[in-house]
Batch of 2 targets.
Target 1
Amino acid sequence: MFFHWYKNVMTQKFWLDKTYVDPSRNEIKRGQELTVMAPKVIAVLSLLAKNQGEVVTIDALMEHVWRDSVVSPSTLQQCITKLRKVLGDDGKQQKIIKTHAKKGYSLEVDVTWDDSLELLTLAAEQQKGFNFRPYSFWFVGLILFFISLYLWNVEEQHQPLSFDVLTPLTATDEKETVAQYSPDGSYIIFQRSNGFCGNSLWAKDLKNHQEYPLIKGVGACSSGSFSADGKQFIFMSKTTSKLREIADNCFNLMKINLKQAFIKPQIPELVLGCSRGPFDEPLWLNNGSIVLLKYQGNNAKLIKYSLVNDELTDFYSSENTELYSATYSPELDLIAVVGLNKSSEHILSILNSHGEVQSSTVIKRPKRLALYQFVFPSFDAKRKQLIFNSAKALYTLSFSGEVTKINANINSVIYSPRFHPNGQSIIATQGVFDSDIAEVLLTKQESKQESQLATKQVAPKFNQVYTPYTSIERSIYIERDAKYQPSGEGIAFISNRSGGQQLWLKGQGYLKQLSHFKTDSIIQGYSWAPDGRSILIAVNAELYRLTLEGIAEQVELAQPVLGIYGWAQNDIILLKIRKAGVPALTRYSLKQDLFLDTIARNFRWAAINLQGHIVYLDNKNQFWQLSTTEAELIVALQVASTIGSFVLSGDKIYSINKDQSIWTFNLENNHYQVIRTINEAVTNISDVQDKILITQAISAKKDVIELSSSN
């Protein structure tokens, strides 16, 4: 209790005369006017406030506020300009923030900290009529004693976990994903790919190391859950010969009898059709009910399905939180749900088997985790906590939202970690995905070179090198989302070749890394300027303007940026932002520094051309166009299928359908045409000029591994 009270007292809110600043909410309230500022702007003001009356150098501000980014001093100047505007100051009078030429800035008004212990003690004296001051020293000492005792107990009870032994459990020429232990820990169930066309469920006995295919045919399998007695297994699946159909979000809930499946592969039984969904994350509770995430627009809720009477009923939802993850512990009979609230905080809620909230808290994310990186945890029932991964790192997550890094012998990216029922080991998949970018002809016929390549490389194993089209810059890492430089010869693309996601530029005779963001950064998208002289890039939900010399200047926005879909000639940017906790497609004016409007919320992809014409794809795979203010359904395109993304070049839309054919649609005359077929290794097209830039899957080396401790 003392520790919780003390943390609340020491929040860093403060007053500047009659202006109230709340850094925890990125808010500045001046009179009755409340303004939400970008986090970096608030960080600049907080640093000046902590050094009130003193000159804070430009270098110090850059170091503390943009520690993990490479930006120019002009970014800081933009922050100061925005602060002066909202504080009622200006660059001439400088009554609040003073500029010290070539040195830095200082805050010239008095600062009153809202969390002062002195203020608290005075308030206590006034309210109770008790002279608290003579005892304040002993009171503070008592508080510190309880804090020390609390921290000592926490450290004793929550020593960092350590797993220094890595044991491969599979080693094939296929790709393994989403592994989990059986309830008794004697075997594992995992997914194994079958080329580029699908995956299937397999099991492996951990004692005799024998593997068993559990289901017949090739499908697209997703996550699963055991029955309480461990005899049956449910999972999401779509039987299809083309993974492209996953884009429909139409997965059925299927069930298999494991005893029979270990004898010979079974045809799964349909439990719940996707027409009543879409669903994900099936959880089979101890009481026999099945709980699933059911998506509705941009949000989701937990629903309960009864196997007895085939009924769906609401189980749990939150008006203030956008749910995105759910997991279940049969041992604890608890469900953990994670979502984003309207302040874009990640919220962990623990539910009982009746859907009643036992606890709900903000996940206290360490700085090394990107702010908007989703958390998909699973239970560590023995220690009554959760576990999740981020790239090459593992973390524990307490029910109170505390995150602690696990010491583990990991040298490449891991996926979907889960604890053994005895809590002594962790199962996961580990490996890398290799994709390259290439150019293909904008014609119906393949070139002679492409035809020869396709003839020579027939049906390889998936993690063998397979290059149906000549890569423009080969590596063994992920290359994706290539875009032509307007009025130039360059091609920009995202690559992991330097250890993390960065933007690279290839031209005639050169290849260089443009961005230098921190290693675990997440690039949500980018767009060339119409003149080809700079690039806007969304990184970790922040927007930067990147020069061709590699200098990044942050564009301070009050809303997190989750995607960039193009840059029109009038300096209008098409962005995906998170507004009041919900994703939204919006136009942003660089000149006016203003969000203009919200175009759509339930959308999957979008694009804007140089003239400002907008096309977007909704969650039902319907195309819409917006040339002025009203969106219109493109009726002529309702018969077209798409893998989920497209390119808008001039007045033409380009995409790939489920039959691996590239098609184009002319917005002026409503003419639809299939222009050529494309190899199944191609995952998307990213730009079109005289040729088409594509991303092709080369290989995927992913195996099931087990982490344990040598102690």
Target 2
Amino acid sequence: MVVKRVLILTFILLMVSLSPSLPFSTSGKAQEYSTSWVDATFEFRFLNGTHLDLKLKLDVHNMTVYNRIYGADEIREMYHQGEGAAFRAKIFDYSIEVLDKVFDNCKINLGIPYEDSSTLNIPKDSDLYNPPLTFYIDGNVTLSSNFFGSDIENIQDFVNGLLDIGARIRYDFSFFAPPLWNISYVFKIPDYLSVKEINRGDISIDGKEVVWKIQNHNGKDGKVRDGYLVIEKVNPTSYFEEESINANITFDMSEIETTLLEVSLDIKSLDVSNVVSFPDFVDGIQFLPSDGIRLLIENGLISLDDLQSLLEDKWLKFERDFISSLGKNITFDVYVDANTTTNCSQPYNTSYMDTDPPLVVKGTGKIEKLLDNISTRAVLGIIYSGGNVRINKDLIDLSKLEYPFEAKIILPYGENYSWNRSEDLNISLSYDFALNYTTEKKERLVEIYVKDINLDLLDIVTGKSNVVSRLDIRDDLIIYRIHAHSLLSLPDWIDLEIINSDLFRLLIEEGLLDAELDGFLKERLNLSNDLMVSLVKQNNLKTYLDEKTFEESLSWDRDIKKMSDEKPISIPFFSTVTKKSKFSFSIIPFSFTIMNESFDCFSVPGENVTYRFIFPKGVEVKFNDSLGRCKGGVLDDGRKYIEIKFFENDGLVATTVYYSLRLSPLMIILLFLPIIIMILVIVIIVSILVLMGRRRKLRPKVPEYREISDEQTSNFRQ
């Protein structure tokens, strides 16, 4: 017990010691309770759940001061003689003794007693004890943990905080009256509080005053009367009849490569009945706001482990519902935000217990394919290419979530789209600064390289005059942009008319063209083959895709924010054929001419088509065509070419290019060089044979030798 009375008592006793006229005696044994007859009213007014203002009114009929009983008239007489300090000191002690018994171990502050001046000027009569002399004492009481039968250290915050979240607080009293005392204990209830229940007391009609009366005027011993009072706040700041949990869900596409999923499970109120046992003086509360949870943590009524377990249960339920709704396999990294629990800068305000901040469980994860089966990168590429993406609850379904939610999508260009459980998801994602295309842009370059010209020696042997040329044909389809429907089938929630070359590459990278690309290339291969067959008038032509060049054209800067057709896609096809041509040759003048050659060229609707015939160095070319579109030119390396163009709006157009070639003397020599070499070889061989025949005729005759028999040999020896 803390009592601010030392200075007060010192002051009063000092005054008593300076009053020699008082017939006090300091000898003799003091009684347990000095004889006194007092009618008192102890009035208490709740300032909050643990702090009460008090005003004591004590009508003193008689009082024992140092073993002498003074009636009211005698006390007044002593007061007129200026000797009232001892009586005030005694009244102070009486009051403290009574309050100490009612508010055991509580902090009691009492002021200096003061008299009701109207009761000091009553004349003395035959009744020494009546009318009484009235004293007043002002003060306050701060209730302690011991009063509530609890060991909670910060009981003031605990009680006041619980009152502000709708709890009912019970106050148990053992009201006391000393012998010969009558005391009325009056509790004034402010408007913001209401009495829920009382025991053995009387309550006023308006419910704002509760009184317990103890009559002990004839008693020889102290009298105790038990009673209790239950109060609650009329309008608590927070009162929940159920859990309040909200989910804040963010689908963040700003990283482009994937969708970052951020979930904040905001727990505003929580059912703690399974893990918290409230003290007996607390009732009527099951669902606590976040401030209340922090209050319990600080006062040791809920452990961090128990809280962690509760919050994890709430998260697991949300996670199951969320994954089931989206139909995606998501792995979350989950943690409880300590800044909303133990590290909260302002855990609670006992006069305003609210849900700010809520308890927060955070989870993060990644989704590669948020919308249907299309990657985030592909979706953003479509948007940055001028497409429109419509998202509804069929694409992002959160209908299975039990908790209310606020969800939003964040796009890389800063646009945010939000929705919640009370409104259907129906948003359209687009980019205002995207390059919008309305038409296709495709070009085709068909190049025919005359690689070499050689005499057909077999034909020459049979009397024909033909040359054989090897032709390398290359058909390069160059796509800047193309109609989306001609490349793939997009889902109905994507509006995209034109696919530019960057988006073409992106769709290949993201696997959206896995099923369609082979068919697309095959269709282009067949068209290229038809063009080449018509061009060189040879059936059974083998045409191939230049895969290396095609793959090289798929490389790009991968900047999805700048999707354009600046760098086109190249789809090159090639083939090689041989072609026979008739020629005329004259020595005077020295010339070699290939005449009456032609190629049939066709337009391709919707494409700008260029045919280019490239000839070896040293060849003079003359040409014309039926449309008069042919043009000639010279490449940087000196080779001459013929070129004819068709435009995308020409429709179906065809023309035949006629040309003749005149070879230079050097080319003629090189052309006939095999024959010349062959003739020289034959001449050399014949010459060698003739020379060998002549040498055989000029050689002298060799003598004939014959064999001699042994008989003839012996004759010679004789």
